User: Fold these one by one.
Assistant:
Number 1:
Amino acid sequence: MADLIAQGSRPEERWRRRLLTGEPILLGRSTGEWSVPWDMQISRRHAQLVWDGRRLGVRKLPEARNPIFFHGRQVAECSLRPGDHFVIGQTSFLLVEQACHLEGDLPEPIHEYQYSSEELAAVLFRNPDRRLEVLSRLPEVLSEACSDEDMCVRLVSMLLAGLPRAEAAAVAVLGGTPSSNLTEACWAREPSLPPGPVAGSTSPFPAANIQTIYWDQSGVSTGPFRPSRRLIQEAVHRRRSLLHLWRAGEKATEMPFTETASYDWAFCTPILSESLPPWAIYLAGRSSTAGFSDKDNPALELREEIKFTELVASMVGSLRRMRRLERQQAILGQFFSPLVLKSLGSEEATDLLGPQETEVTVVFCDLRGFSRRSEQQQENLRELLDRVSQALSVMSRHILAEGGVIGDYQGDAALGFWGWPIAWPDMVERTCRAALAIRSQFQRAAQNADSPLAGFQVGIGIAAGRAVAGKIGPPEQAKVTVFGPVVNLASRLESMTKIFHAPILVDPAMAEAVRQKVPPTVARLRRVAVVRPYGMQQAMAISELLPPAEEYPLLSDGQINLYEAALDAFLAGRWQEAYQYLHQLPADDQVADFLTAWIAQHNRTPPPHWDGIIPLPTK
């Protein structure tokens, strides 16, 4: 395996990246993981690299401003063997073939040291300004990482720059959770061990379950780097830093311990974050080249490095927890409004994601005009998909703005609901506001030919009742949604909006709740008809949800009363009277058109045994 090492003019300006055979790589100042942000002489996209398994091909891109130097000459292309390097600006790029192998059968250390918190607290930094500079930059540098691996690249580079006695560094991860690899007692145990040499113990972590995320060395060695598995396991198991010494001063016989370069000391500091697999920082070096004043007792000299590394580990652990919470918030933000997320973040809300049976209101929003647009834009389906995504975004935004939950997306339809995980006392009003806001935005878009929503309409069905809401489904495919007959009813009502040409229809339970709890300045209702949905035996009364009178002057309160008078006459079989009432309504009232057409189709005469119920022929 081959790596490319980038080294800038400062020690911390460094990274090591693994090269994959045949995979083209863009190198530049803004090229993701292969970025070299510290060197302004490198263009945003400067060179393309390809490793063929034996050589690294380097080609300068046309937009690159500054030259590439190889063997002291400017080149447009070059081919590197392991050990070769090229230079751009102030940065050198070295091709190496090195490996990092976690070693399980190293010799037993001559000494093993563990330091108490009190002992480390008493240690004074000999170069506090430099230490503080590295620590102050650490949160900013690590927070810019685009992945865990990128975070480890930055972390190792800063450790090697901030700890000159360390000649090699690695970050390892121990997979699993307390419920899988460890017993709860083992995970939570805080051992009380004295400082100084301590006896070894058996770690509960399987050796095969440790992986190196990233490693690097301050120098170049032809042999592999061999961190000690035992040291990593023990440090994480004991939940504190641990130092191994494989020889004492200059009197010991030369032996290959942590790697071919004969590193004779190493310490490991765990990074422990709740609900995250533990990480471990591993640092190694040689007492003969570390500038120790007391080479016979390097354990005293290394206390400063261990204290500094523990400070770094604490900051990294906090940052990992923060990144995890940010990812969780981003995922939950697709379903929950900020108000709900705030509640979920409280201690009382830890179990709220579990499914619960509760009273809910359900909104089912479906896009109209999608099939026609699909036919018209067969040659540009990506643009159509973008427009549909924006339409779904409108639905989602208004549902979330009112504290609702996004339960599902079904093609060009969105499902939202209220009542879980928070039982809003005003959830009926919130539901009305969300549905009317969606209707309003689509109607405004219809008047603007340049709007991405132009040509689309929306149908909305709303139902209220009991349902099971929460995280539903098997663990591998679980999702937050709502389940029960009320969901099917909302979907049926949405389908009926096509038949009655009413943008929003509600079921009897929702209609009754609106009449009791929602003022007319927020929403109005009019009874539309009594129907027997297709495939169902039971009839139900449906109502239309309308905006307030000042927002929707097409229908005044008096005209709503006129329609309901026509409906009462229709239900009672007085169709001639109903017909006359309906003709007094505005010509643009398409809901009135449906009832008018129904009466006209039956020659204004109720059929025998008329019960007031309109059977619907389709869904």
Number 2:
Amino acid sequence: MSDNVTNSKGEEFGISELATLSKSGKIRIPEFQRSFRWESSDVLALFDSILRGYPIGSVLMWKKPAPAKRVVLGALTIDAPPQSDALWVVDGQQRITSLVNAVSADSGLSDSRFKIVYALESKRFMRASDARNTLAVPLPQLFDIARLIDWLTDNPEARHYASDAQAVTGRLRDFKLPSSVVEQADESVLRDIFDRMNTAGKKLRSAEIFDAIHRANGETSSDDLSIGAIADRLEQSTTFGRIEDAAVYQAVLVRRHPDITRDPHGEFDSERRSVSDFPGEDLSEGYRGAELALERAVDFLVNHAGVPHATFLAYRFLLLVVARFFALYEKPHPRNIELLSRWFWTAASRASELNLNGSTATVRSLAGLIRKNDEDGSIQRLLDLVASPKPLPLPETNLFRANRASSRIVLCALWALRPRNFDTGNPIEPGELASVLTDRDTPTDVALEVLRRERLSDSIRSSAGNRVIVVTNDDTKILDFLLSRQRPPQHDHPAILASHLITNGDLHALKNKAFKIFVTDREKRVLEQVSSFLAARTRADLESTPPLASFDLDDESFDDDIPIGELS
């Protein structure tokens, strides 16, 4: 038998024990793990499962030393001393964080997701905000029998339910979370565990696996060296919104080599470095380089391509290809930036025709056209791939779905009109979009309907003619403004209407409740705007020649002494 045998054993932890271990600093969250991302509904479902006796799965921990550090676990912040046998949570962070915080009185005060109560009459767990005028005991009091007795004393009307409450307390305190605890200092073993976890049961995300493989020790000196941290910083430093972790992970890979299907093991080992476009860099430099490439890609998308927010992006592969280009060429020629924008919109429009999609094969083939030390050639190869004698296909405007690529192209075309805010009359800024779209995966919250769907017939119910880009959380304001019931006198009303492709004829149709006429007429103008937008962005009528600097004008037969006027 090998001397390097992994010691893995099954253990069970009660909620009270998990809380004690957490507050003593013995439970640690590796840096590759994202911060707590469950919603209150998830926390509620967890405790409901415990109440019903449903299994909630097991967790995986890695026993190893941990340095002194300030540890953040949900709403709890612990100044943890050094530990010789800390328990690093490899899988199960969301469950452990929820259990520990929900039974802590302080957590609920600072984070409403952990503010859970038990409704005595309906015998179920509820959010505290949903339990107004309901006889309900807070979970921290319910969990501690002594505190429960005090609560019952202070709430004599609840004494009739005392036996049920005590039974729930017993169930919570008897609950044991099954755990597998691994004791092994060899990181390669943990790699294997991660891989096996990713092929059975609840899968880890690719980005989490990648972070885990390369940073599993959890002791790196930088707290911000992770896929999630890169995504968080980009969201904070730009108005583009949060790029999903999977895209950041793929950007790390595609920046270094076009093949993003490669085995993530040993990505920064010497052998892999030799075939990378950045052979000399280590893990830290690879992450930083990817972040910078994404920053430049976002700048291009917002300021050159006209994509104001991540939720407006038609396809992820577009971002990855652009990121690879800006990784290899930090300051490309302005002509190539223009041509890249043409490629971007041609590829977005012809994606279905050319079978370009979100597959790794698409990313690999497109990224492979971008080669080191060949900026002009890289752009020309991209353009050649999407060139077609066929007319540019236009997205459907009669079927708007915010999660569809075609509808996002429509929104970008509408954004090019600089839509104005109904409240202020000023053009909407990207930052305003970002504030409304925080934590959103689609642009639905800024692509609101003028008329409620139930007021429209089936044939026009999903039309883009009924959508406008606004940043209000009150969609009734749209119709109020258009019908002149809520219009500040200082507003430039015609300019606001024009920025949303709304005419006086539309207003007349709305006032007369001719809703079908309003939607169908405006849909025609939306389609015209999309056609005009794509024609201007793709410029298929113009040559796509590279910058003049790429041509060899140093002809041996050229005579520098010939006057310019005689070169005709």
Number 3:
Amino acid sequence: MNLLNLGILAHVDAGKTTTVEQMLYQFGGLRALGSVDKGNTQTDFLPIERERGISVTASSVTLEVNDLKINIIDTPGHVDFTGEVERTLSVLDGAVLVVSAAEGIQSQTERFWKALREMNIPTIVFLNKIDRMGCNPEEILQALLLELSPKIVPINIFTNPGNTNVSVAVCHISEDSILELCENDDGLAEAYLENGNSEGAMTSLSRQTTDCTAFPLIYGAAALGIGIPELISAIETYLPASPPSPNGDLSGIVYKIEHGTSGKIAHVRLFDGTVQNRDTVTVFRHGAVPFQQKVTQIRRLAGAKREDAGLAHGNEIAAIYGMTGVKVGDMIGQELHRSYSKIATPLFSVQVYGQDGKENQLLQAISELSDEDPLMEYSWNPNERELVIRIMGKIQLEILQYLLQERYGIAAEFSAPSVIYKETVAATGTGTERYTMPKPCWAIVTLTADPLARGSGFRYESAISGSVLQHRYQNHVEIAVAEAIKQGRLGWEATDVLFTLTAGESHKFHTHPMDFFLATPIAVMKALEDAGSVLLEPLVKLRLTADEALSGKLIGDIIKMRGEFDSPVVRGGKLEMEAIVPVATSMDYAIRFSSLTSGQGIIKSDFYGYVECPLEIGTTAKRRGVDPLDRDKWILFKRGALS
């Protein structure tokens, strides 16, 4: 039996979870059809998901159709949980992107489509809710062709849209779609353009779907079960599946972590080989030394259920117990080089307050939850008893507050969200640290910091050979640099900077394994200080559609928010405009915009990037912990001698 690991993606409320429920009901032996409104679907099984009617975690279920086993991963659609989707993308063979025929292309629709294209994941589009009153499926199709891809190919048709009498039927590929397919298929082009022969169109669509140069589209109404058989047929026909691969060298990736009554559970997509109970596997992590982990139990995933399996083969997804040291993104068996698409960027931080006497329990709980969501990084300042986390938005905070109470019995409160700024270097700077006293110790490090183009992120290179400084110590330097830049001279994470190790020295007798972890942060801070720091603030791109009469008010709002905008375009009495605005001034603008347009306007928001910001407009951050430039105190701290 062939295997297909399939992701279901959509903007929130597009009908994604209902689509999965219907797939299970019609083809998976599900006896009773669940409902999001009733809170009894298979993939939204957490109490908070059923209460709120939204997915907050990626959930897996299995469906067998003919000779195909489909591992379906239902992903969250709300922007606050985009990190779950980002992590899931790395394990998919194919995807279904659900689009609402009522709301059309929404911000998450575009974000997910871009990520799927960047990662070359074969994709089927399911145009849902064609039963919704007032919908216009044909208009949405034209928008999809214009805004996403002209190679989206409808393979069924609809009648009576906008009411419960809607129906769909299989159709031949249209002439316009055949011409689009011809652009990537010389054989089809020759047969069709010369003889009008389109018999090879379906075969061409199948190949081009696998190649990510074309994308089948299915019309449907999931709430009524309409279009689901056609969707399943398209998944069987167009998306690439593979048999289990048990015989090669073990390789897999951890894409999700959860904590249950049996301890830490690693959700793993295997690509090759076999892993079974009681195996010891090697774990690879970027920037870290490989380490060993013991597998105690392997289970198959089925929504809230976990079925004992004992082993798992390549191309399967499994829940592995016992690997307490793993994190999301870790690779097991061997190191893999896979592409990723960055679609989630936490832009806010909050301070977390727990009950008196429960600080340690709160810290442990946040640590576990950060394991499950690596984007929710946290920092703990023991001197000031201050716990700060990074978040995507307010809905995430509500879910976090619920989890802390229900899972850990902690009643937590949060400060108001603050914008996360970053910093970079103004010029090239150099920092050297000679840590040779008090012995036994010896670590000499010289680092150069060079500015990079905006959006480049952090990079590290070594310009010296292993004969100058042993590779194990160079690895320590690399790890220490990545950790040190989380707090630059302005208190923010340093980005768009290249750190180069230009000199280093150890001692045969005096160097302790931890010496370079102590010396490197001092060299980093010296290099940043020498280079000079520049504050960066985050921006978002807004796309606004509203009544033409609101033009003046919208432009006034953008100016007040320190934004920049393109000239508005007016079509049929509707104004469309794009603007780039700081996150700090636009945090609650969606609420104001909805009020201004009486809920009739459309606002789409996407992270745009970081740009320079004057210090008097932005803000610096208080340093957490000991400053490495306070050298004596830093050495005492790292050597465990600071009270």
Number 4:
Amino acid sequence: MSMKSLAWLCFVLAVGVPIANATWLRGVNGGSDCASCTIALGVVEHLSILYNESIVDSLDRLCNYLPTQFRIYCKTTVDFLGPIIVDGFLKKETADVICHALTFCHDDPGQQKCQLFPSKFFSTLSLDERGASIRRRYPALLATLSESKVCDLPGIKEICKIFENVYKNHIPLVDLDGDHFGTESSARGSSWRGKDCNDFSKKIRPGARSPNGDPVNDENCNGIFGMDATTGQPWELELCNEKQRLGIAVLGDSISAHFHIPEEWLDARQLSVAAFEHLLFIIENELDWPQLSAATGHVNVSWPNIEGPTRSLYSRLFDLDHCNHRDYQNIAVNGANSRSILDIAKSLTRDQQNDVPLLVFYSLVGNDVCNGHQDTIAHMTTVDQIFNNTMNGLAYLDTVLPKGSHVLTTGLANGSLLYYLLHDRIHPLGRVGPPITYEQVYSYLTCLQISPCNGWLSSNASLRDFTTQRAVDLSVAIHNATFTYQPKNFDVAYLDFPFDQAIAEWVAQGGEPWQLIESVDGFHINQYGHGVTSDILWKWLQDNKPHWLPPLNPRNADIERVFRDQGGY
């Protein structure tokens, strides 16, 4: 779903400074620049409260939590903006007012005034006016602040370049042979798609066929190659059945990518050096965790940044047949919808003649009804549009998937429960200082017109109902397109996205529904939600499409004995 706004504005907590320069996040009243500044300074103030220290010390504390490569950027920005920040807090102003003083927030004509933190004292002046009174004390900064965007500021410019390089493409940043498979784990590398075992040859990649049994080289990167000295036969021919190998791919949005912002970055009580230890890796993966997702998860982590075991469709395919090792592709992008996926899908890699079939999940579950626009209904995808987009997407897959592949489309998720489940709960940002609820966060992002989903995260029940009905209508259109298109190289099926079923199963296990939802954005399913969703999807495949799944490989134990972890990931 469209969480690019939160991805950008919450990353600021990792560097201690505001950062956002994407045009799709502009919004109003400063948009994402304003939200980034306000949230970051709110956390700084919470550190000051928690440790009973000055704002200067809290700014320094936050910078020192960061890995070395970010610390210098953080301190450069603090040195530049620090005088106004400190002066504002000394005057007992809130982060909202100080960000108006820094000109990242402003009051656009005709727009509602946006405020996240409650005022500490009564004033007849607007936030703009109170901010201007602070700013006038620093004329040397005034010209720079009034003309610059966030990414023009000292210390921020370098970090923006990192984002630009990582986020502008959907293929591995490091890919020497251009086959769309890389050797690095982040930046669209092996977290997203199988690791390339030879980055100097396009012919050697995950999913390739091995007609000769890989007697010398591991042509398909599944870690099985060489000769069995006792039989004189290639191991691949002995241990694998070429006809039953099957890769997996997902084309989707931030749900499939597994968008997750660590709550430790917003809760001052949990901020620490450990919370940011893997910061660069998390950033380079676009604040997504595909390596732990329901579709392509393949590792478990013990970091403080995420909680819950990994259960995925890929791991289950691997359990059935270890010859499917590394044959996964997560082609999901934060913010993708039925129109943009038509271009994103071009980063899917499959050779129709020389690769084994793929099981593809075509799953766009929110962004066709979710947006941050004030007139959110006008910006929703229509039934005709999503029908045509789905038809075009299936037609493109027919040009790249090998014969014998399978495609499962899903409908949109039912997001109608999100507001009901979370609106009155305390958000991680409100655990120190004045309590802040999810409803307040939702309303603030809506006011700035950068909400991930105005339709479902709104206090307006009628708008929520309309959004749900549109999602139902679009799901019907996806279903109809799925069975209208006549594929040549794959067969198809459709499934309603099982969000409601995941909640029901979690509750049956003794859990509360809200425990499946991301704590920071209050919108996505979290790691536990991905595990339950994977359980449901796998059972559906077993019950309804058992012929899509490979049989159990009786030689799995031999593969483990000879090749151990098959080169890992």
